[in-house]
Write a structure and sequence with these properties.
The chain is an alpha/beta fold and about 450 residues long. About 30% of the residues lie in helices and about 25% in strands. The protein has helices at about 5-10, 15-35, 35-45, 65-70, 105-120, 140-155, 165-175, 185-195, 220-230, 340-350, 380-390, 395-410, and strands spanning about 90, 100-105, 130-135, 155-160, 180, 210, 230-240, 245-250, 255-260, 265-270, 285-290, 300-305, 310, 320, 325-330, 335, 340, 355-365, 370-380, 415-420, 435-440. It binds 5'-O-[hydroxy(phenylacetyl)phosphoryl]adenosine. Catalyzes the activation of phenylacetic acid (PA) to phenylacetyl-CoA (PA-CoA).
Length: about 450
Amino acid sequence: MKLIFDREIECMERGGKQELQLSRLKETAGKVYERVPFYRKAFVEKGIAPEDIHTLEDIKKLPFTVKKDLRDHYPFGLFAVDTKELTRVHASSGTSGKPTVVGYTAKDIENWSAMVARCIAIGGGEPGKFLHNAYGYGLFTGGLGLHFGSERLGMVTVPVSGGNTERQILLIEDFKPEVICGTPSYILTIAEKMEKIGKDPRATSLKYGIFGAEPWSEEMRTALEEKLNIKAMDIYGLSEVMGPGVAMECHEAQDGLHIMDDHFFVEVIDPDTLEPVPEGETGELVFTSLTKEAFPVIRYRTGDIASLRTGKCVCGRTSVRMSRVKGRIDDMLIIRGVNVFPSEIEDCLLKAEDLVPHYQLHVHADGFKENVQLHVEITEACFTRMEQNLDHVELELLKDRIKHAVKSSCLVNLDIHLLPPGSIPRSEGKAVRVVRHKTAQLGV
Ligand code: DLL
């Protein structure tokens, strides 16, 4: 049962891996064609049948799936098994109306747990050590996904979930975990709370952080590593494809996320033309599941922006690696014609002194124009200095510095609003980086 490094799969030479992927792809295509009316119709409309898949390249002939398809078939219409065969469902909260629902058979849960176990091991976890799991438990896949993976790996799992930050700190001190999991923004909140109550976040037993579920930047990694004296690794996943554990960065290289490509086939496409982009170029991630039973997905368009690369990693693994997610297509702001992702702005903020990485972009639609304000908090030290120095010259200079930094790296002018420490709402799960305010449209 113990599983730290599945060398046979993770270090498989590419030809062998591709053969495995092709046979699993054929099986999945056959299954959805036979059992999911939505896919049968989409295949027929494209003039393709499962027997027409001869090579991995043929995947391009298959139809895409998008989030709306899940909503349109709410709750179980895209499942390939009878609901009697399910072991569990999860759902995403869904900002616009109904949630999107995903289902798992017992075999799916077994595969998912094994994949997350691999991910935790890739990120430095070991059997017998404690793992503090601060991802939210419930319909969100983060908490239970990491939980089952951690148990599968043989780690002592602390199912603390998100929230109650003081108790999190107590448990970290008393149980002495080596690994901590949670959204990067919430783990930062825990570290800041430790500082506030006079505890040294660098002095805990923690060695590795497994952070994901929201976009974060290299600068945020440095901030978390320095604050907590740990190695911080990126874990990626989405409920529609499985949940956490679709890809994970290794602690040896911290250089791209190893995709579980024995279970998923990944493509990167240009979201406008829908054509694949060359290796190394950025585009939208698209996943096809290769082993899922209850809810297989064909060419699921994630809306996440990243790039792919092949080649052996220094850790020895040969799986395809994805870059850090740069942002989501729907979180991308187009400010006076320039595409900007919140994570690019985060990079600039973290390079500036006197700021903490708590920020929000407020988008005010004013007729057909969008006005974007950047709200960011200053440090306690800067706030105290500002209170003593009532002419606020220091603040104006700081604003100018940020404005220039954002202008030179993201090519846009933003309205900067500096706020006292603690003013931006903290989240126990995914941080809200973009807030859209709607005002009346012109001519209405
Ligand atoms: O967030 C699953 C997860 C849980 C991943 C815990 C990692 C850790 P959803 O709630 O369905 O599932 O949200 C999926 O979150 O499409 C991305 O936009 C974003 N996301 C997930 N991981 C990362 C990451 C979980 N490492 C959506 N970097 C995805 C950037 C991420 N964005």
